[in-house]
Each structure stands twice: as structure tokens, then as C-alpha cells.
Amino acid sequence: MLSTMMLLGILFGLLTQAYTLPVKNSTGVHEGKVRLKRKYSDETPDWDEMNIMDKIMEVNNRLRAPRGMSFKEGDIASSYIRSAITCPGNTCLWPKSVDGFVYVPYIISPVYDDMDRITIETGMQDISSGTCIKFVPRTHEASFLDIQPRYGCWSFLGQTGGSQTLSLQTPGCMWSGVASHEFMHALGFVHEQSRSDRDHYITIIWKNIMPDYINNFRKHITNNLNSPYDYSSVMHYGRYAFSEDGGPTIIPKPDPYIPIGQRDGPSALDLHKINVLYDCGATE
Description:
By secondary structure, this protein is α/β, with parallel strands linked by helices. The protein has helices at 2-20, 26-38, 52-60, 114-128, 176-187, 268-277, and strands at residues 70-72, 76-78, 102-108, 133-137, 144-148, 153-156, 163-168, 202-204, 250-252. Helix content is 27%, strand content 14%.
């Protein structure tokens, strides 16, 4: 009996000692696992702090395109990729009215609640307030946006003709900046890091990109509208977009610490580019 009590006492002492000892590098191992799981933004674990593209990628991570459709760069729906900035005769742009405004008709699903509608309309207003683009409820127009809470956040690129779906899933896509991002796709804009001149401003770290998503980082032949590269564009990927192991996939240059992407809505340069593309300020 005595020997049993002594043995239990020794075991208790060893367990207590082991529990109180610091575990070297345990935090580092844990952070590594969290970092690996997050994939899209290693600097912003808080959902409220993630930039727009991080939010979209989180929602679209398991997105499967409906039959007959494909998704490019994470959230552009099409059977092929195109940029309205370069489409022949500007046939991909929404038409400009004689009063100088560009009216984009839309219908919005009745499935959305009041707060969802406010969020979506705020995304519209953030574009309309600084441009000649006006989103208007559809009456009889043949071409219009059909805003639906489909699975994920995505849009077609430019005007496709007829009814074109723009998906804003609720609640995952219910951020005005996400709505603005998808509306800018619908107006004809690709992601900022897809610009033809991007290699002057960023370095793509190809080895850090998940192999199945390398095509998301290809450049497009774009008319860049004589506008500066915009690190803070609502259309810019985050620093860790599609990262395989938590390492950065995009590094700004010459200053690698320049923040890229944001979460509030269109930047001043985003609005400027819309105005240039749609010739805002001059009537036909």
C-alpha cells in the first residue's frame, strides 16, 4: 500500500513538472497550422478586417459553376474571359444616354431582406455618387442585371445582353464593397493585378500559388485608360490570394510593404477609371 502511494506521488510530481514546463515553439507550430488553413489573407484573421477579394474568395472557395458556365479569377462568370476595355466598338459596355448618364437597369430578388437590399444599394451608390453610372430598377429594358442570392459572389464581365445574373449570396456576400466589386465586373473591369502593365508594380510569386489556380494570375491585354496602377483598388487581389502554404502570392514593388486591396468600396482611382471608360462628363 505504501509503495503504491509513493508511486502515485512520483507520477503526480512528474506530470505537474511537465505541465509547468514551457513548450518550445508550440506557438509557432499552431500559427503555422492556422496560416495553412486560412489560405487567402495571412495578415487578417478577423473576417471584418479582410479585404474585398479575401471575402469573396472565402465565400467562393467551394463554388462550382452551373452547367454551361465557368469562373475565371475566382468570381468572373463567362464561357470565355474578356475585358470590356478592349472589346471591339465598345460593344461590351452599357450604352450611354443622350443626357450623359449610363443607366444600368436591374431587378433584385425578393428573397433578400431589407438589410440585404440596403447593402446592395449602398454598393450601387458608392459607384453612382462619383460617376455617370446610374443603377435603375428595370421597367422594360431588354438588357439588365438580375441580382440573385446564388451560391457565391460573382458577375459576368461587361454587358452580355439580355438578362445577366449577378450573384450576391446572403449572408456571405453582404458587404457593400463586395457588391461594388461585382458591379465593376458588370461594368467591364477585370481585376487590377490582371492589367497588362502590372509587372512594373507587383511581383507574382508563382511558387506560392496553388497549382490549380495559377491561371487566375495571368495578365490581360488591356487599355489601362492612362490611369496609374491602383494598389488600393476594390478590384485588387489580396497579398495572399490563392496561397498554397500561407506565403504571399503578390508583392508590391519597389516597396514590398505597400498595402494592397481594401475593404471599404471603390477607390478614387476606381471611380476615375469608370469615368474615363464611359466618357463621363461629356454628352454624345
